[in-house]
Design goal:
Blueprint lengths: L21 H59 L7 H22 L2 H11 L3 H20 L12 H32 L4 H32 L7 H19 L3 H10 L5 H5 L3 H32 L13 H25 L3 H21 L3
Length: about 375
């Protein structure tokens, strides 16, 4: 998607035209919406590489450090659980902490030592529980998708399950498209009513007029700018660059960009824009609506891929203008967590400090339960 600085493209009121028609208003509204979407998409495309670099440079190492300290904390808790001087309540708290931390970290790191510690405090098998969870996900996907995902894959791998589900979805959609095409072909072979023939003829005529509208714009620009006709080398380079933009706009059926290029190159003026015929505007508006839908889809895909890459909930609302601030907050939070975890490790040098630490934790848990009774 090309982003260029151009003159404003819109139909304006003047003495000869005191008010805009319905099609003219629709044209202006579509232009504004497309401009807004193009700006948002360009903002995403600009900010994502910056976010990726800062995440990899600043946040990812902090997350690893935090996990490393948490793993050390698990081992400290494991060694402490058998020490004398702890009450049954305190031992129970330690067991719960080990179970929660070891289970989460084992899933994140696939660490056999952590799995063994988890099994020790849960009287169960981590891998068996994970496989059961994947089996549950498999059954859920099969129910939702109405397909059999099969058993010939690693049942301990949620990633493999998701890949298999996506493959089935793609195959299902491909089959659905083939079925729809076959259905349309069968319908086409049937004898059509006069009304159907008239409707199809109208649709074909509109499509031809739409393509003709774009083709006319392209030909005018290409005729005026074709670099092969330019003797001056510098001007030829400029026209070559412009032709690349024009060709891309034509290939993408990007009507707005073709119109903007015409305005930018002063191939028409405001009066020409104001006097676009109602019939031509109707075709232009149809193309612009399709372009707007394509932009919506591209923005959705860009945001969805970004959320997937960084483990962000698909329901979280994001904005290109705020994600760097959110990343800075995440970095500060992990730094704070690391400081707290380092302080926690110092506690295990003295059983009395451990008991005091557990007491403070129990008080915090009570306060959390009081604040969030549900």
């Amino acid at each position: 998607m090309l982003t260029i600085q151009t003159k404003t493209l819109s139909i304006v009121i003047n003495q000869d035209q005191p008010q805009l028609s319905k099609e003219q208003k629709a044209f202006n509204a579509l232009i504004k919406k497309i401009e807004k979407k193009r700006t948002r998409l360009a903002a995403w495309q600009e900010i994502i590489p910056t976010y990726q670099q800062k995440y990899a440079r600043d946040l990812a190492p902090l997350i690893k450090t935090s996990q490393d300290i948490e793993i050390e904390l698990v081992h400290c808790l494991d060694r402490t659980s058998d020490k004398k001087g702890l009450t049954s309540t305190e031992r129970h708290m330690i067991d719960d902490l080990i179970s929660e931390l070891a289970g989460r970290l084992a899933a994140e790191r696939d660490d056999e030592n952590l799995k063994n510690i988890y099994n020790k405090y849960n009287d169960s098998d981590f891998d068996a529980e994970k496989a059961a969870a994947v089996e549950g996900m498999k059954s859920m996907f099969e129910d939702i998708l109405g397909v059999d995902l099969g058993d010939d894959f690693d049942m301990s791998s949620p990633e493999e399950l998701m890949k298999r589900a996506e493959t089935h979805l793609h195959e299902q959609e491909t089959q659905n498209q083939a079925d729809r095409q076959e259905h349309e072909e069968r319908r086409a072979k049937r004898k059509k009513t006069a009304k159907q023939i008239a409707k199809e003829s109208q649709q074909l005529a509109e499509e031809q007029q739409t393509n003709q509208s774009i083709r006319e714009l392209y030909r005018k620009l290409a005729s005026a700018l074709h670099p092969d006709r330019e003797p001056d080398p510098q001007e030829r380079d400029r026209k070559t660059a412009l032709m690349q933009r024009i060709n891309q706009a034509y290939d993408e059926k990007n009507l707005l960009l073709l119109l903007e290029l015409q305005l930018e190159l002063e191939h028409f003026d405001q009066a020409t824009i104001n006097n676009i015929t109602a019939g031509r505007l109707k075709h232009y508006n149809k193309i612009l609506k399709e372009q707007l839908n394509e932009l919506d889809h591209e923005i959705f895909h860009t945001e969805d891929m970004f959320k997937t890459q960084f483990g962000i909930s698909p329901f979280t609302r994001l904005s290109p203008s705020t994600i760097m601030r959110s990343l800075a907050t995440d970095i500060a939070n992990v730094q704070h967590t690391i400081r707290e975890l380092k302080d926690d490790l110092l506690v295990f040098q003295d059983i009395k400090k451990v008991k005091s630490w557990l007491k403070d934790m129990r008080q915090r848990q009570k306060m959390d339960n009081f604040d969030c009774p549900f």
